[in-house]
Amino acid sequence: MSSVGAYYGAPGGSAYSGSKGLLEGLVPNLSLEIEPFGLRTCMVTPGYFRTSVMTPGNIQYRAPNPLPEYTEINLLIKAGCDAADGNQPGDPLKAGALIVEAVRGPDAITAIRENSQAKLKICDEWEDFASATNF
Q: Which of 9, 112, 99 is nearest to 49 (CA)?
């Protein structure tokens, strides 16, 4: 399971988004490595679904040694999660039914497309500079 979170940053989401970004790079390569053995991979990259993951009490806001420099950002992150709770656009029951056929959440496709287009723009902007080291 990947996540739309792999395609953009969010304060407080570094570890989560980073782990999902890792999967986005790992799974296509793993697929090539295991294909000769008749094995396949499947990666689901869903968008936001209305689950209880952000319900107060389910998401934990704690650090072993909280730093006062992070108080403000931590309050903003908590407020964002509280605001998102119960307002996610996706229906998890519908997603569960579609996973059997391979889920393609519309908000996930939009995020992946926008992220890919932004990366292509960077490639276009830096192509001449980056290739200046070629023989």
A: 99
0.70 cut: is pTM over it? no
The 10s digit of each residue's pLDDT in 21-59 is 999 999 999 999 999 999 888 888 888 889 998 888 888
**Quick check: 5 and 16 in contact, CB under 8 A?**
yes
Cα–Cα distances (Å) from 68 to 72, 73, 76, 79, 116, in that order, read: 8, 10, 14, 17, 37
Give the CA distances from residue 99 to residues 15, 56, 86, 94, in Å, rounded to whole numbers and listed in that order: 25, 27, 22, 9
Q: Are the C-beta atoms of 44 and 6 separated by less than 8 Å?
A: no
Tokens standing for residue 70: 């992070």
